[in-house]
Amino acid sequence: xxxxxxxxxxxxxxxxxxxxxxxxxxxxxxxxxxxxxxxxxxxxxxxxxxxxxxxxxxxxxxxxxxxxxxxxxxxxxxxxxxxxxxxxxxxxxxxxxxxxxxxxxxxxxxxxxxxxxxxxxxxxxxxxxxxxxxxxxxxxxxxxxxxxxxxxxxxxxxxxxxxxxxxxxxxxxxxxxxxxxxxxxxxxxxxxxxxx
Length: 196
Fold this sequence. Notes:
By secondary structure, the protein is α+β, with helices and mostly antiparallel strands. It has one domain (about 5-185): Alpha-L RNA-binding motif (Alpha-Beta Plaits, 2-Layer Sandwich). Helices cover about 15% and strands about 25% of the residues. The protein is built from three helices and nine strands. The protein has helices at about 55-60, 80-90, 140-150; strands spanning about 5-10, 35, 45-50, 70-75, 105, 130-135, 155-160, 165, 175. Strands 1, 2, 3, 4, 5, 6, 7, 8 and 9 form a nine-stranded mixed sheet that branches. Residues about 190-195 have low confidence and may be disordered.
């Protein structure tokens, strides 16, 4: 049976076990040998990492060809209007690629949100707001590039869910063994947070 570990990766950690430069490695948080990250998060992003010793499951989670939804909470600078959200939903066009259509909605600041160290920069004259975005592809820094492209740069990015599996109950730096089946990584969450 595959071993699956869920980790709430804090800001400042790489999605690898060894540190590099100013960024810390997962070895400081996760004393579980033989598991590997299935889908990375940048060091300046936070949230759910799935680690496993099952190569097929790792590929299903990480490879965009499987189109597994990954849900992010993004704190953005400003307050996106309906037109900006619709541009994100349709896909954003860049010189080198166009993003796939995705699900996007405004959300209130997530309940039980932890403090980030270092804190997000605060500007008294510029409000911030939160959006939830579910992607089925994984281009480099995609959420940050998309929100900046429509005029609302991302200040903080948290991956909340991979498929139907989320980080509820995990504080930053905490991990737990996952006892569900592989099917949990085939489902997705609807906008109300339920599996479908």
